[in-house]
Amino acid sequence: MRERLEAVKQEALQELEHITGSTEIQELRVKYLGKKGRLTEILRGMGKLSAEERPLIGQLGNEVRAAIESKLDEKKQAADEAEIAAKLAGESIDVTLPGREVRFGNRHPLTLVTEQIEDIFLGMGFTVAEGPEVEADYYNFETLNLPKDHPARDMQDSFYITEDILLRTHTSPVQVRTMEKMKGNVPVKIICPGRVYRRDNDDATHSHVFTQVEGLMVGENVRMSDLKGVLLNFARQMFGEETKIRLRPSFFPFTEPSAEVDLSCSMCGGHGCRVCKHTGWIEILGSGMVHPRVLEMAGYDSEKYTGFAFGMGVERIAMLKYDIDDIRHFYTNDMRFLKQFNRV
Length: 344
Prior knowledge:
Layout: H1 2-17, H2 22-33, H3 38-43, H4 53-90, H5 109-122, E1 127-128, E2 134-136, H6 137-140, E3 165-167, H7 172-182, E4 188-197, E5 209-219, H8 224-239, E6 245-252, E7 255-264, E8 281-290, H9 292-297, E9 306-313, H10 314-322, H11 335-338
Parallel strand pairs: 1-4
Antiparallel strand pairs: 2-3, 4-5, 5-9, 6-7, 7-8, 8-9
Helix pairs in contact: 1-4, 2-4, 5-10
């Protein structure tokens, strides 16, 4: 058995002299030192030895194992170092190459326009109010003079979650919630920016989700002329000092009287072009004096207080401001479109 152990040792060390790869080293480890390896197979015969021979052969077996393991570890370390050196050589960096351009993200055009609208109205003494996008039917319709059987509800095809919960179709519920919190106190001067949802077919001018900014002012002696003055100031700051507006009679359930607001076309200066359909005017928002019933449901004395409200689509304003012809550009994440807008 002593001769067999010495022979296995010499055989293993000789094989290891010609091995350099990690895979071959592992294979030799298994071949000689594994559970079914050559050394293990020899040492299983120790049970047939005498009591005097067994310790001597056991000691020799340990020495043989140690010699083979030492050589295996030496070869493994050399193989690992060679692999690392080859990898570093293959991944060397050419410092003469030009650097990669660092790309900065741009502000989304809807963000730019929303913040500009907010800045304009903050400058006129308004504050920004927010509310939930998942809204109760009560706040979205009933408190705005739209009871459950009102035909005007058909004007806004809604996403209902339950019979009484829906995705808000406008930010007007924020106005009602704010008036409730004020508990009849004045003045109320707020704008309400946020996303709204309507069941609509997406095309160049419509989307099922879009952004609105609505405004509300409630106090004593608030008049239609105040509404016109505020909107004219907004239009001139947004589109230029030469901008004009006009109010046309319209209908909204929550305002009386109501008016559509048109903007003089900035493309042609009011002379008529394809953008304004050769009329010289472009419709931009709806407005009116807050309906007395809406004031009363929010806790205000409609005999003492009056107010005006208005609502505009941010996409509509952005399309006019930046001459964008398709609303879908705002949502398709096309970098060629988005990188046109200034980061600042």
